């Protein structure tokens, strides 16, 4: 047998072993987590999709490259195309989710009495199945490296996380800035496990000030938090916070609105906020032109507000593509993002 054939045989054996080992690790990793009732098999498959690229993916790529180099005819081209696809898959699952960028947004014109501030805005951490403890610790270090006045978190802190929320989320206590946030749909069983109250307790233990249904005065601004649109009652909160609104434009004043879903901002009266921030969309997470916008509009949001700063009837809206992943443990052309927002004269 030629040396190349023997080498490839061992590569394919190691690939098979990696797949089996990934399943075993997934079964171990599945233990002691919050799980959405009735979705144990889905979660196990998602964990296998997390571990398989790490334990078997490199051998698959090496094997396909070996066939492309040593094969002949159509087999060679098929293996080459498959190798390119696997390279994209490994990049999206192993590399891009671990990258991050800081995107800066400046909004000028302060309302009377409001101080100039710099804000770090994040969303969709999804600590749990795919976003691990070391990544949470790295995120805290990145936030601490920024010169900001506060951190705003627009929901979805978790995704089927370990049972011990207080210990797992302890790194949040190390953030050196005030942290304000709201819960997202995966935090309030829409969908997700029944962890809302333990999560609230854990976040508050580590210094996070939760805003849903509250107005908090801060540096001349009024921070307003709204419920998640799927698992809460933002409509009632909006009626309470803007009782004078009857479809006519209102003065935005000094209100900064924090909510999880961009669609919630569409419920606000015209001119309701100086700035609203939201997450939820992940910016599409895996961007395929044409397909990703269609999926977003049909499964995730009714508004074309997916990633970036938008002019809306309620006022400016910043939608962040978030930090973590869900569904598939992958990002492609939608890098994890920390928003740096400067509000100045």
From TrEMBL:
GO BP: any one term: lipid A biosynthetic process
Domain spans labelled Calcineurin-like phosphoesterase: 118-283
InterPro entries per UniProt: Calcineurin-like_PHP (IPR004843), Metallo-depent_PP-like (IPR029052), Metallophosphoesterase_sf (IPR051158)
The entry's keywords: Hydrolase, Membrane, Metal-binding, Transmembrane, Transmembrane helix
GO cellular component terms listed in the entry, alphabetical order: membrane
Alphabetized Pfam families for the sequence: Metallophos
PANTHER family xrefs: PHOSPHODIESTERASE YAEI, TRANSMEMBRANE PROTEIN WITH METALLOPHOSPHOESTERASE DOMAIN-RELATED
Keyword Transport: no
Entry's transmembrane regions: 7-28, 48-68, 75-94
Designated name of the protein: Calcineurin-like phosphoesterase domain-containing protein
Molecular function in Gene Ontology: metal ion binding; UDP-2,3-diacylglucosamine hydrolase activity
């Amino acid at each position: 047998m030629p040396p190349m054939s023997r080498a490839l045989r061992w590569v394919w054996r190691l690939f098979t072993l990696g797949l089996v080992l990934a399943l075993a690790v997934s079964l171990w990793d599945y233990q002691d987590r919050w799980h959405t009732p009735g979705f144990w098999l889905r979660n196990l498959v998602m964990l296998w999709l997390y571990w398989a690229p790490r334990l078997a993916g490199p051998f698959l790529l090496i094997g396909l490259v070996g066939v492309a180099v040593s094969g002949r005819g159509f087999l060679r081209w098929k293996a080459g195309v498959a190798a390119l696809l696997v390279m994209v898959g490994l990049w999206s699952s192993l590399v891009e989710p671990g990258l991050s960028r800081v995107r800066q947004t400046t909004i000028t014109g302060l309302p009377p009495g409001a101080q100039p501030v710099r804000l770090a805005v994040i969303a969709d951490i999804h600590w749990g199945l795919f976003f691990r403890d070391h990544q949470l610790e790295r995120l805290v270090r990145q936030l601490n490296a920024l010169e900001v006045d506060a951190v705003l978190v627009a929901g979805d802190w978790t995704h089927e996380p370990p049972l011990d929320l207080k210990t797992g989320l302890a790194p949040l206590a190390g953030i050196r800035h005030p942290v304000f946030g709201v819960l997202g749909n995966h935090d309030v069983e829409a969908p997700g496990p029944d962890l809302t109250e333990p999560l609230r307790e854990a976040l508050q233990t580590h210094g996070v000030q939760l805003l849903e249904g509250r107005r908090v005065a801060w540096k001349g601004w009024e921070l307003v938090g709204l419920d998640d649109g799927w698992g809460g009652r933002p409509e009632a909160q909006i009626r309470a916070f803007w009782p004078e609104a009857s479809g006519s434009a209102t003065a935005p004043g000094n209100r900064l609105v924090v909510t999880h879903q961009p669609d919630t901002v569409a419920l606000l009266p015209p001119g309701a906020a100086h700035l609203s921030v939201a997450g939820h969309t992940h910016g599409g997470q895996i961007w395929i032109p044409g397909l990703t916008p269609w999926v977003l509009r049909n499964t995730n949001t009714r508004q074309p507000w997916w990633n970036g700063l938008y002019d809306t009837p309620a006022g400016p809206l910043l939608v962040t593509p978030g930090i973590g992943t869900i569904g598939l443990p992958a990002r492609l052309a939608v890098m994890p993002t920390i928003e740096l927002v400067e509000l100045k004269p």
